[in-house]
Amino acid sequence: METRLELDVLIYPDEVRSVTPEDLRDWELETASQISLPTVRLFVALYPYNPAAMSPNYETAAEELPFVPGQIIKVVGDKDHDGFYHGESGGLSGYVPSNMVAEIPVDDEYLKHLLMQQGFLPVDHAGTSLTPDLSEAASIPDDVIVRRMVALFDYDPWESSPNMDSELELGFRSGDIIYVLGDMDQDGFYYGDLHGRRGLVPSNFLQPLPWE
Description:
alpha+beta, 5-stranded antiparallel sheet, 4 helices
């Protein structure tokens, strides 16, 4: 019975030789260096998006990513022919409508990591400003603990407040930066400052932000 031995060989102009383990390792390294990894881009949500109620693709709404204004979304790749990116945020992944988000112009990988840890950026309601005016916290007493928070949802005390004295509360819109003064009270409200206006704000409508 005839036995056949198969060998990989390298063919050069002046020689033919068997492939060594070192040749295979060099080839794998060269091949890996030629593979381009997809670029990770960060986007910030400009508007609230609930796929179940807002998606133009009812049958695939479950595959889309819900988000609120200011939420940072990690995107890999370009948008598809329907105008959707594929993104990740808050432990969830799904398709993201490109007209509801804006790209954050950052290339530094460490800064991208910090932004993803932060999770939110303040946005104005024209969708253009990504940085707050820290002067909003002026005239706050030195002995008061100040926390910086972003509103996750719109809040109109006259319509949504559970309290009789709703005139003591502060109305705001999603994406507003609110400076919270002191601790939360027994009813779950903070005392907050928004562009010089002050009043009670419901804690479950807010998300803490780090100081810059």
